[in-house]
Amino acid sequence: MENNFKESLRVETKPDIVSEFLSVATILRDEGYDVKKIKQKTGGRSKPRNTTLEDLNLPESMYNKYPQLRKDYLIGRRINDMHNILKSSTRMKATDAQKDALRKIFEVKKSAIRELIEVLNILGEEFEKSYIRIQDLQLRSKNEGITLGQIYYEGLISQDTKDKLKSKGYQYDFPLGQRIIGAKRLIDGKQTNYVASPKEIEELKKYINSSRTYAKGE
Fold first, then answer.
1. Is 8 a residue whose pLDDT tops 90?
2. What gap in Å lies between CA 184 and CA 190, rounded to an integer?
3. Taking Cα atoms as reference points, which of 104, 92, 90 lies closest to residue 17?
């Protein structure tokens, strides 16, 4: 019994689960099926079970066109697994690229704090080489929060870092100063519109100290 349990854990955490789901979900999306509307369970209250591809009544031609599709594929269960990955509430692992792909499938937007952490992680790699501390940045200019564009203009980061930020979707107008000021208030337990998990708070603390002063009106 114990061996069977360990074996089931091994199967559930095998690294190709996310890739397999992305392959299936991409096919469904390209064929006009809205993955977000697929129910995780079917069979009603009396006999609930995980939804399979067969339950979607896909035309037989799709199975012929895409051999990787299996009628017994537990699409409902995997949708639940992928949501848990995006919420960081599972031991299943996924790369950042896979998480980005999952967000596109489900059209899940990143929170303001999650975006800030991603930007800080990228900037941190560059600033570490230059002995610049993110927490020492001038966060406001002419009473307005600085943007990534101003960081570019001041030559604080390399072209490679600019390209990396752009590849992640972060443009010149990303409100870096405003986000950091809000994050400082969050760390201090002050009133803010931002929300973050305890793990995200710890990630922020790597780059941002507790705020000593706040700009007027913040």
1. no
2. 8
3. 92
Please give the Cα distance from 87 to 95 (Å, whole number): 14
CA distance to 132, 159, 174, per residue, from 166 (Å): 21, 10, 10
Task: Give mean pLDDT, residues 189-205.
Answer: 82
Alpha-carbon dihedral sign for residues 49, 53, 54, 58: positive
Amino acid at the residue 27: I
**Considering the entire predicted model, what is its pTM?**
0.54
- Tell me the pLDDT of the chain averaged across its residues: 81
Dist CA 73 CA 53 (whole Å): 6
CB 49 within 8 A of CB 43: yes
Q: Which amino acid belongs to residue 75?
A: I
Smallest CA-to-CA distance from 76 within 102, 56, 95, 99 is with: 56
Look at residues 29, 47, 50, 54 and name the one whose alpha carbon lies nearest to residue 39: 50
Condensed to tens digits (0 to 9), the pLDDT of residues 28-77 reads 988 878 888 898 998 888 888 999 999 988 888 889 989 999 999 999 99
Cα–Cα distance between 76 and 68 in angstroms, integer?
17
Residue 155 scores a pLDDT above 60:
yes
Residue closest to 116 by CA, chosen among 183, 191, 62: 183
